[in-house]
Amino acid sequence: MTLLLFGSIAVRRLCQRDTFYSSLSAPGARNFFFSSIGFRSYFAKQTLPMSRVALDDMTQTGAFIRVPSSFRNFISKDQSSQFPAESGRYHLYVSYACPWASRCLAFLRLKGLDKAISYTATKSVSERTKETDEHLGWVFPDSSTEESGANPDPLNGARSIRELYELASPNYSGRFTVPVLWDKKLKTIVNNESSEIIRMLNKEFDEIAENADLDLYPPHLQSVIDEVNEWVYDAINNGVYKCGFAKIQSAYDEAVVKLFDALDKCEEILSKQRYICGNVLTEADIRLFVTLIRFDEVYTVHFKCNKRLLREYPNLFNYTKDVYQIPGISSTVNMDHIKKHYYGSHPGINPSGVVPIGSNIDYSAPHDRDRFHN
Ligand SMILES: N[C@@H](CCC(=O)N[C@@H](CS)C(=O)NCC(=O)O)C(=O)O
């Protein structure tokens, strides 16, 4: 009896750990765990060196810390450089669910680089990337009909984003994140950091970009953009993750207060001007937009960012519609992938994987931002 009691407490403790839960992706796997064989295999999993999902990147204090990206090469307009800007040479691997990848897609569209740089989107929900370990990550479908918007890897026939990292660097031990900017010629990853990829797309391809004149990081606004990016990244883009992935109350409390203070600050700024750095669209707007568009549908519910809904902020809400309606942007927002991914790929937060019904906001509805003159 005592043994049984001890056993059940131990099992419950283990179940509270996200690293454990995230390894049990298929519903059947969770039941399997409760068999004795499953119990033994749980201990075997603990020797796996890599953490499995971003949710595992925790400090001792239960606060979420994002791990830096590792491929940091630059494509340059200088044709004698290692990675010169060329039409048809580079490929972008993305997930529509991912805000960081979506900002790269937005730049691709805004700059008119669709013909010069091809792209592929993965399936929305994380899956096992290998038979031999428990890693869960981005995978490609077997055919284009498996999930609308997702396509098989046309270049390397890879099954997962992980396979691309391993092709580029066989001893790679970091995270297998999207976006990935791939060089078809050298068969390697150029860069996997979205804040740098968007800078390359903004200027380095101007010889071939259809909208070469559009500069989303113009010299006269660079210091303002950098300053806005810094607090928007910390409190909003990454802030929602800090709320959602917090494992202790104080880490959540700190992140959620910072998040809503920053949203209040945006609301105030946007009551006086059309965009976040003035009356012209800049990189800072795209970076802010990718989080706002996911806010009411996902972050409010899934990441516990529910102090206020985005649609309760008149300026922020109309601003989100305004950016969404810029030609090209709506095609980078796939709400089906977004919802399926978040609610279905974080079993530590949403073990059932059930996707909530709302809020189905129509971002193509009229907005009031024309009241500001460009
Ligand atoms: N700093 C990176 C972050 C990219 C990132 O965290 N992507 C997430 C998806 S939203 C990812 O691929 N996560 C998979 C993992 O961590 O295993 C960037 O901005 O490009």
From TrEMBL:
Domain of life: Eukaryota
Residues covered by region (Disordered): 136-155
Domain GST C-terminal: start-end pairs: 218-342
Cellular-component GO terms for this entry: cytoplasm
Active site residues of this protein: 98 (nucleophile), 241 (proton donor/acceptor)
Pfam families per the UniProt record, alphabetical: GST_C_2, GST_N_2
One term of GO molecular function: glutathione transferase activity
Chain residues that bind glutathione: 138, 175-178, 193-194
PROSITE patterns: GST_CTER
Cited CDD domains: GST_C_Omega_like
Site description Lowers pKa of active site Cys, residues in chain: 299, 342
Protein name, as recorded: GST C-terminal domain-containing protein
Natural source organism: Platanthera zijinensis
